[in-house]
Each structure stands twice: as C-alpha cells, then as structure tokens.
Amino acid sequence: MYFHRTILRLAVAFALLTSPAFPQDNARQDDGADNNGKVTQSRPPLSGEDKANPSKAEADTSTGILGLLDADSVTGHVLKTRTQDLAYTATAGTFSLFGQNGERTAKIFYTAYVARNRQPGRPLTFAFNGGPGAASAYLHLGLVGPRILDFGPNGQDGTSPTLMDNPDSWLEFTDLVLIDPVGTGWSRAASDSVASSFYGVGQDAESIAKTIALYVNHNERMASPKYLLGESYGGFRAAKVASALKNDQGILVSGIVMLSPLIDGQLLFGERQYPLGAALQLPSLAAAELERRNAFDPTAVRNAEQFAMTDYLVTLAGPEPSGNEAKAFYARISQLTGIPEAVVGRTRGFLDDTYVKHSKGTEFEVVSPYDASFAVSDPYPESDADRSNDPILDGFTRSYGAAFASYARNELGFRTELTYRLLANDVNERWEWGRRGKNGGMRAQASATGDIRDLLSVIPSFHLLVAQGYSDAITPYGISKYVIDHLPSSLAAGRVDLKLYRGGHMFYTRSSSRRDLTADARTFFSGQSGRAQGE
C-alpha cells in the first residue's frame, strides 16, 4: 500500500531497538451483547490468547503519548460465514518494546482474532500493510478480518461506507493477528527522536519479528504453523520479517502470502526508460485498457505479455525505429494501452507514467496508478505535469481509517483519544532503505529476492503465494512474474505460485476478486493444488 508515484520517489528507512519487549498485562472487557450477534464477556476462560492479559488490576505505567493507549480489550464474537457460525475471541491491544536502558521505546498496536474451538494445527497468520507508513486497516477491513467495509453498489463510495460481516474472512481457516508498525495506526514511539530509530528496512523487520515472537510465546502458539501476509511494501517486509524471525527469534514460518508486492527495487524504482522495466509494466496497462473497454480477456493479456517481452523489449533496447516500422510499432502500443499514437511516438514507446494523463485520449480524464482502469475527471486538463490526489488512495479507500477507529471503539472495546493514522507521510519520508544513507539510491538496491531464496532453501516446507491485480500500475504484476521465473526451479517448483485477479493494487475491493483470492488462500493454507491461474 501507499505506492503513489510521487511517494515512490521518496526514500524510506527504519531503525529499532530490539531488546526484550513485553505486552501490557491488562485487559478490559465489557458485558452484554449488541444487535449484530457480537457477544462480549466480562471474563472469558483463560485460553492461551487470554493469558497475556489476565487482569486490568495492573495499571499501565506509561507516560507521555504512550499513556494515551488504552488497556487491552478482549471480547467474544460470532462470525456468520457462508457455511457456519464461527465463534471467536478478539483482542485489541498493544505490545511494548523496551530499550537497553529498560525504558519503554514504543507500543505496537495489534488486533488478534482466534477461533474459540480451534483444532490442533490450526494456522496462525500475522498480517501488515506497507507504505512504508500504512496501517493494517486495509487488509483488516478490506480482506481478511471478520468485518468488512462495503463501499456501496458501485464499490467506490467512501462517504457512507457500511461495516458488515465478512463472508470471505480468512478466519475460517487461520487465526489472525494484524499489526500496525510504529508510526502507523495507533502504534507509537515514546518520542519523535526515538521514532527515527524505527524507520528503516532492517530495524522495522526486527521490531515486527519481536512483536510476533512476543505474541507466539505469551499465547502458547509455538506449535501452530505460522504464516505472514503483507501487502505492497508489506510483501517486501514479510520476507525480511521471516528472515528476522528465523535468525533472531528462532521461529520458522511455513509460508508467506504477498499481495501486490514490492520484491525487487531495481525493477520497480529503476527508470522506466530502462527497456526491461518498461516491458514489465506494459501488460498491466494493456489489461487496464481492456477493462476500460469492457473487453477483459486473460488470453489478450497473455498476448500483451508475449509482445512486451519480445518485439517491444527488443525495439526499445535498439536504435529508434523510423518510417513504417516506427508507425506500426507505435500503433501497436497505442492499440494495447489506449494512449494516442502521437504521444507514444513522442516517448519512443517508453510509457513510464504517461498513461496517467493520456490513457483516455482527449477525454480529459486521469487514471489511478493503483488501478489504471479507474478514471476520473482531470482537475488540471491544461497541464501534462499537474496531478490531482490519487482517486483511489486519496479517494474512497481513505474511509478505512475512520471506519477502523469506530469499529475498534464500538465493537472491540479499545478506546483511545489518539488519531488512527491510516497513512503516515512522515514515516514514508523519513524511511531509510539502507544503513549507508537515505533516499533514492539505496531504495533501488532494496531486494527481497535473496530472502525468498534463503527461506526456500533452508525451510523445505516453506511456500510462497504472490497475488496481484492485472491492472496495478504501482507494482506491475510483470515484475513479480519476472522474479518468480528467475528463481531456481529446484527451489520454486511446486512451492511458489503467482495468482492474478481482475482489479488493481487493492484488487480485493472488488467482491469477486476478494472471493477468488480467499479461495486460493484457503487452498494455499491447506497445501492442496490451487486453481489454474487467471480462471
């Protein structure tokens, strides 16, 4: 999440103290029941999930901003799925991290959902979004949680969204722990100076790994198969966290699900005037044009992939075409993407972000990089340079933040006066991609490919599922396909899979794509063969 093109060009990092951290030993529970079948308990039986929070009698001694975070809340609920009524316990609370001097450096907010009558071997999945600087409300209320935010009949109205039971919740087949990294959601550092030590690739992974280890140990879940789910930068984060869990905490994960991930910085952040980068982007733009014409066809997208990695790539890598050759080449690109032939010729076929202003020809509309099939009126039609806020990232999906704050207070019983930070620009801007410096250069060198190879090598049961939207232009699926295709077959065969769905970066906002992904995730967690890609 949070890969707006302008934001993509910002550098980002994370530096954290990883000395022992402990959760608050507090729980607040409310009596009664509401009208939605959510049953709260004054004192549920002390299952493993409740032992970390045995009593509210021990008051939180936090001072400053950390003192504004409420005690943990444990509530009981029932989810009506497509096949059953599933009773579960929800815990909304925080884990504390401490520095070497024994002082609390941060509190990390999390929400855990655990089936009441779970069977031995039930998986446990830790989920987070990306950014860097995005809270987990996207995955929480958009995909996996027991409650989901509905954006109205057209799926794009954020003015009056409705919270409802999620019939496709992953809680049916895995317990869930959703984590907000420091600086996002309600996770906070003790001070601004301390916060800077959390904003970096390695330190971020270490802090999340420590939080996961705390949850596992305090709730007696070491024997549970453990999975990670990350979206966008969160996909990159998941690979780094898995490595940190293995190396620092002695915890091995069974698998990772990456949604619309950053995997390789060179392929994503490198100049799109680089022929390979342009070729990996083209199929997503072709898929978006098919969607705009109501003519989407997976076969047509595969044909675009073939053109992108053959004639298109070779022509871009060679001298500038001329004459009839140039005309035919630019016409083919225009037909695939909807960008006028004259514009394509002006850029020599390198599209970069040209599609944002020109995919709709002379209609004065702009499309969203988060879903290049999604167009709105251009507020600056007189300019090729001036851009509006993104119609998806800054449009209806912003509602996830306020909706989660209301949900946590009114249904989960977690009350705080802090603002829930759905997207934290300051975290993104201060991120450090490497120890040697900030900003662009290190970002392009960031890669999770080595982590994936190592995990596949040393954990024979490890599996990876990469899920992407066809028309995502922020993290084009072609990049993930390229990375996966270049993994050693001895490691990846039968263990790494790429699934594609209609939609963009947050393709799960489409109910049909959300259902398809949930079905594929169920298969992934069960270890069975998945559906054929693209079906």
From TrEMBL:
Residues 24-59 are annotated as: Disordered. PROSITE patterns: CARBOXYPEPT_SER_SER. The keyword Aminoacyl-tRNA synthetase does not apply. It comes from the Bacteria. Pfam families: Peptidase_S10. It comes from Phyllobacterium trifolii. One of its GO terms (molecular function) is serine-type carboxypeptidase activity. This is Carboxypeptidase C (Cathepsin A). InterPro entries: AB_hydrolase_fold, Peptidase_S10, Ser_caboxypep_ser_AS. GO terms for biological process: proteolysis. Residues 48-59 have a biased composition (Basic and acidic residues). Residues 1-23 form the signal peptide.
